[in-house]
Amino acid sequence: MNAHNLLQTPIDYLKGVGPNRADLLRKELGIHTYQDLIHLFPNRYLDKTRYYKLKDLQQNSAEVQIIGKIVHLKTVEQKRGKRLVADFIDETGKMELVWFRGQKWVRESIRLNTPYVIFGKVNWFNGSFSMPHPEMELLEEHEKSLRTAMQPIYPSTDKLSKAGITNRVINKLMQQLFIETGGKFYDTLSEEIKAELKLISRAKALFNIHFPESAELLSRAQFRLKFEELYYIQLQLLVKNMLQKKRIKGFIFEQIGNNFSEFYKEHLPFNLTGAQKRVIKEIRSDLGSGAQMNRLLQGDVGSGKTIVALMSMLIALDNGFQACLMAPTEILSVQHYQGLVELCKELELSIFILTGSTKTSKRREIHEKLENGEIDILIGTHALLEDKVKFKNLGLAIIDEQHRFGVAQRAKLWKKNVLPPHILVMTATPIPRTLAMSLYGDLDVSVIDELPPGRQEIKTVHRYDSNRLKVFKFLRDEIAKGRQVYIVYPLIQESATMDYKDLMDGYESVVREFPMPDFQISIVHGQMKPADKDYEMERFVKGETQIMVATTVIEVGVNVPNASVMIIESAERFGLSQLHQLRGRVGRGAEQSYCILMTGHKLSEDAKTRLQTMVGTSDGFEIAEVDLKLRGPGDLMGTQQSGVLNLKIADIVKDSQILQSARYYAKQTLTKDPELKAPENKMINFTFLQLRTNKNIWNYIS
Ligand code: ADP
Ligand code: MG
């Protein structure tokens, strides 16, 4: 049997495993085969060259390793169950070892007055040390076993440790695996890449990750394996993107016709920024390429994505197609609708809006007009996704604020025409480049990284609740100048009565502080009927109310240029990206705008970092990077997508440089040899196909 087949052997066959352990390994760690075990990488390493003396133990020592003997064993009855206690000594002192579980087994297997090496965490209580559930090995065995300075610590679970599958057992199994396979693992990267990056062989890397021969070899092993993991993810994403382009034909929009040209020459309300021009060019070239466009457009709040969307839709129209724009909320859809109607008023276009609250008769009219092509642009909420909504000829679908829609919804839009329409996804939540590369490696990405000119920096400050009176005074001054104000309360869960009460208490205190008739106050929250929400929102938009008390329902997209102050209550309870989104609601007009972050005095370290970041920068990408560091990628993207980052050894945040390099090399490989047919890429091709069929870390690639 060659080494490769051997690795597919079920784990049950490894000496020392047996049916029970095999079952646990499968269930708890997902280890089914030899190969899976080899890929169980340690979480960390401990310095095992050091043996402690009992007299040198510190109250807050981490895990320690001690050589000594058990001189006495006794069972101690206690209120809840029994515990087994051993007196353990070395030549410098004495401590207790304690077991709460597995006592029978310990009692039967332990040899008194025989040298052991014990390992574990010590507790300090009532003037003496003890060690619960130590790992133990006879000194004699310990000296024989394959052991290195850096002792790997493997991921474990409660069930595993209860069943006695300790770190030491895993270590033993790993040794056994290397013995049975002879440690001969084929390489998966080309000689060229290995040479350029000075990578050690895969076999050497796998050995050193489990049995480090030196600190240097360990770090080279880690580098090599991280690189490999990221390289294959990138390769997979790039190949997917390539195939998509080849396989999925798109409508070809060759013409730049009247609508686009006329709008560009005569009706543009402002000069486009350089970034907007660049992005429109990128989109134009996609639309003319013959392949279906799948593009992600990232641009910070206020960067001017709407005009890019409109101009892309005009290209579709010029080529005889319809276009649609989908937004996550009713309010946003209405705003887009009004904005686009205004922008296009000189063009003869038929623009309609369809949302959940569209009347049945109107709905019917829209359905009909869509099907016979009388509607050019349809704007709306996910009402657009309903089966009844059929286009005559949908050529381009735009989704605003991607993070509110799932991948499934993107796919639904595809089915709205014989050929899938071109898709443009727009998001204002900056996704750090590293993350975008892994998540959207199959989408092309455009970035608007420049704000329209004349935008003023929003002054952001952090104030404690105890300064509330001063803040209110400031608000009165701003309102006196004719400005409008948002006051936002956290409503982490729309259903949580607790949060809701905060909001209502807040509202009442605002009403007291800013009494009628001098002040008019709106309130909007998720528990209101949509019609009431819209009514209140409308009053604020028209300037009939000066203060908008709201929950995060206003977070996305709302545009009221005259609103220049954003107060965020209990700001410590919001995540960074949410704070940034909220702040983006102001600073949309010509006036100096402010964002005031209100908190109590008790703040966690993370909360402090978030507040400092907000005060320190308004760059969405910078904020996203900090967010990623604080929260980790899974959280950032929401649970549905967190599986994406289920990496075995690399860390998307910490290893972003390796990721960049992996992407670079994956691109190079494919540029030189798109079908991976060249002899020097034989192993790459083999591994690539292998990973596809095995579907281990690749499950997420839909
Ligand atoms: P977002 O990217 O957040 O969707 P919008 O498209 O709503 O941003 O644009 C925000 C504001 O900036 C709008 O009022 C829009 O008219 C204005 N705007 C967009 N592009 C420019 C530009 N190039 N010059 C001046 N103002 C612009
Ligand atoms: Mg927008």
UniProtKB/TrEMBL annotation:
<dbReference type="Pfam" id="PF19833">
    <property type="entry name" value="RecG_dom3_C"/>
</dbReference>
<dbReference type="InterPro" id="IPR033454">
    <property type="entry name" value="RecG_wedge"/>
</dbReference>
<dbReference type="InterPro" id="IPR012340">
    <property type="entry name" value="NA-bd_OB-fold"/>
</dbReference>
<protein>
    <recommendedName>
        <fullName>ATP-dependent DNA helicase RecG</fullName>
        <ecNumber>5.6.2.4</ecNumber>
    </recommendedName>
</protein>
<keyword id="KW-0233">DNA recombination</keyword>
<keyword id="KW-0234">DNA repair</keyword>
<dbReference type="GO" id="GO:0043138">
    <property type="term" value="F:3'-5' DNA helicase activity"/>
</dbReference>
<dbReference type="InterPro" id="IPR011545">
    <property type="entry name" value="DEAD/DEAH_box_helicase_dom"/>
</dbReference>
<dbReference type="GO" id="GO:0003677">
    <property type="term" value="F:DNA binding"/>
</dbReference>
<dbReference type="GO" id="GO:0005524">
    <property type="term" value="F:ATP binding"/>
</dbReference>
<dbReference type="InterPro" id="IPR045562">
    <property type="entry name" value="RecG_dom3_C"/>
</dbReference>
<keyword id="KW-0238">DNA-binding</keyword>
<keyword id="KW-0227">DNA damage</keyword>
<feature type="domain" description="Helicase C-terminal">
    <location>
        <begin position="467"/>
        <end position="634"/>
    </location>
</feature>
<keyword id="KW-0347">Helicase</keyword>
<dbReference type="Pfam" id="PF00270">
    <property type="entry name" value="DEAD"/>
</dbReference>
<comment type="function">
    <text>Plays a critical role in recombination and DNA repair. Helps process Holliday junction intermediates to mature products by catalyzing branch migration. Has replication fork regression activity, unwinds stalled or blocked replication forks to make a HJ that can be resolved. Has a DNA unwinding activity characteristic of a DNA helicase with 3'-5' polarity.</text>
</comment>
<keyword id="KW-0547">Nucleotide-binding</keyword>
<dbReference type="GO" id="GO:0006281">
    <property type="term" value="P:DNA repair"/>
</dbReference>
<dbReference type="InterPro" id="IPR014001">
    <property type="entry name" value="Helicase_ATP-bd"/>
</dbReference>
<dbReference type="GO" id="GO:0006310">
    <property type="term" value="P:DNA recombination"/>
</dbReference>
<keyword id="KW-0067">ATP-binding</keyword>
<dbReference type="InterPro" id="IPR027417">
    <property type="entry name" value="P-loop_NTPase"/>
</dbReference>
<keyword id="KW-0378">Hydrolase</keyword>
<feature type="domain" description="Helicase ATP-binding">
    <location>
        <begin position="286"/>
        <end position="448"/>
    </location>
</feature>
<dbReference type="GO" id="GO:0016887">
    <property type="term" value="F:ATP hydrolysis activity"/>
</dbReference>
<keyword id="KW-0413">Isomerase</keyword>
<dbReference type="Pfam" id="PF00271">
    <property type="entry name" value="Helicase_C"/>
</dbReference>
<dbReference type="InterPro" id="IPR047112">
    <property type="entry name" value="RecG/Mfd"/>
</dbReference>
<dbReference type="InterPro" id="IPR004609">
    <property type="entry name" value="ATP-dep_DNA_helicase_RecG"/>
</dbReference>
<dbReference type="Pfam" id="PF17191">
    <property type="entry name" value="RecG_wedge"/>
</dbReference>
<comment type="similarity">
    <text>Belongs to the helicase family. RecG subfamily.</text>
</comment>
<dbReference type="InterPro" id="IPR001650">
    <property type="entry name" value="Helicase_C-like"/>
</dbReference>
